[in-house]
Amino acid sequence: MSLLPDVDRILLGPGPSLTAPRVMRAMAAPTVSHLDPLMLALLDDVRARLTRVFRAPEGSFAFAVSGTGTSGMETTVANLVEPGKRVLVIVSGYFGDRLAQMCQRYGADVTRLDVEWGRACDPAALEAALKAAGRVDIVAMVHAETSTGVLNPVRELAAIARRHDALVLVDAVTSFGGHPLEIGAWGIDAAYSCTQKCLGAPSGLAPVVFTPRALERRVTCRSFYFDVGLLEDYWVRRKYHHTMSSTLVFALDEALAIVEEEGLDARWARHEQNHRTLLEALAPLGLTVLPPEGERLWTLNAVKVPEGVDEAAVRKHLLEAFNIEIGAGLGPLAGRIWRIGLMGASSSPRLVIMLTGALESALTQQRRAVGA
Ligand SMILES: Cc1ncc(COP(=O)(O)O)c(C=O)c1O
Fold first, then answer.
1. Which residues of 70-82 are buried (b: 16+ CB within 10 A; e: fewer)?
2. Phi, then psi, of 125 in degrees rounded to 5
3. Is pLDDT of 262 > 80?
4. Is the preceding peptide bond at 16 cis, omega within 30 degrees of 0?
5. Euclidean distance between CA atoms 372 and 366, whole angstroms
6. Which domains does the chain have, with CATH numbers?
7. Helix, strand, coil % over all residues of the chain, rounded to 5
8. Does residue 145 have a pLDDT over 90?
């Protein structure tokens, strides 16, 4: 008996999102080795596409790390942080906290700027924290905090960090390909993302970018696997470092081709439109999102669980009756929110309508169960 899934789950959680059909087909191409000329040409294409999609300045090194989003996080941290580096981390949710932990593990002297879960970081709070902290080498932040559905104002925050001569490190795991992100124009020095959210590919690679300013301020990397110098030897100078998966590179290249064919501006507009359509469709069901207007992600909607509703039973009903996956809350938001992702191939009006109908059915079932 095969244990392979024989259902097409409709992935509307915090990730992975649906894999685009063209990306699925790309993954069926024959395996080639990590040093095959065909693979090397693909790596060049991926680098060029990532540089454009990140809108990174001339001289940047944009590539993909073998691993999920967390490997992208670790690559940026491992190459910029060493014992004694002073890092200020904006922590407005679960992933900001992971970033702070990662910097700590690499020996940084970490200052946390804690922000209430469900709210964005106020640029004035960063200005004050930087003044209080004295010299800071790096300011690290999450652009799209997937645990709370909040968008941090990275452009303003980066400008402040730059005025204090700090490097700007950004987690773009839930924003890359879904929300405006301008590495060059916003003064971001290093950033990382993943393939399984707004790009519409499966998990397994982490797009990463280092600008010339970040490359100059690199430290001796204590990780072999994530050493950007060794990875550059492979991606640029074709020297063996590890056996990179051609299948995942085919997937990423195809996903990036789709992004560029759609156009970044059109893609961002699609994510915004489908987010707004979802909010409008949820309103008659009495459902609203946690973050205030202006701080909301388009890619991940943190929908408040109404009083008296069993949130896990609703998710179970969606999965069993409709094949739809949505996510639960994390940490202090466990039981209080559902996380509904509309990312990449999962950001479509058709799926918003299906989900809303399924949620209505789940809520009706709950009311019946309590005899309301
Ligand atoms: C903002 C953010 N950062 C980092 C990660 C870690 O990514 P991964 O689970 O792909 O390792 C996630 C995962 O959801 C995320 O949402």
1. bbbbbbbbbbbbb
2. -70, -35
3. yes
4. yes
5. 9
6. 10-15+263-369 (3.90.1150.10), 22-261 (3.40.640.10)
7. 45, 15, 40
8. yes
Q: Is the pLDDT of residue 75 over 80?
A: yes
Question: Is 194's C-beta closer than 6 angstroms to any atom of ligand 1?
Answer: yes
- Contact in structure between 184 and 211 (CB atoms under 8 Å): yes
Contacts of 223 (CB under 8 A, 6+ apart): 74, 78
- CA–CA distances in Å: residue 49 to residues 44, 126, 238: 9, 33, 19
Average pLDDT over residues 128-153: 98
Residue 225 has pLDDT above 70, yes or no: yes
Nearest CA to ligand 1 atom 7: 69
Name the band, by pLDDT with cuts 50, 70 and 90, for residue 370.
low
Model confidence band, residue 223 (pLDDT cutoffs 50, 70, 90): very high
- CA 122, distance to chain mean position in Å, is 21
Ligand 1: which of 77, 171, 192, 194 to mutate, most ligand atoms within 8 Å of CB? Answer: 194
Span 9-26, pLDDT tens digits: 999 999 999 999 999 999
Position 317, amino acid: H
Ligand 1, atom 9: nearest CA belongs to which residue?
69
- Ligand 1, residue 14: give the atom nearest the CA: 14
Residue 372 banded pLDDT, cuts 50, 70, 90: low
Any atom of ligand 1 within 6 Å of the Cβ of 175: no
**How far is residue 256's CA from residue 200's CA, in Å, rounded to a whole number?**
9
d(CA 254, CA 251): 5
- How confident is the prediction for the chain on average, in pLDDT? 97
Q: Partners of 62 in the beta sheet?
A: 209
Q: Which atom of ligand 1 is nearest to the CA of 145?
A: 1
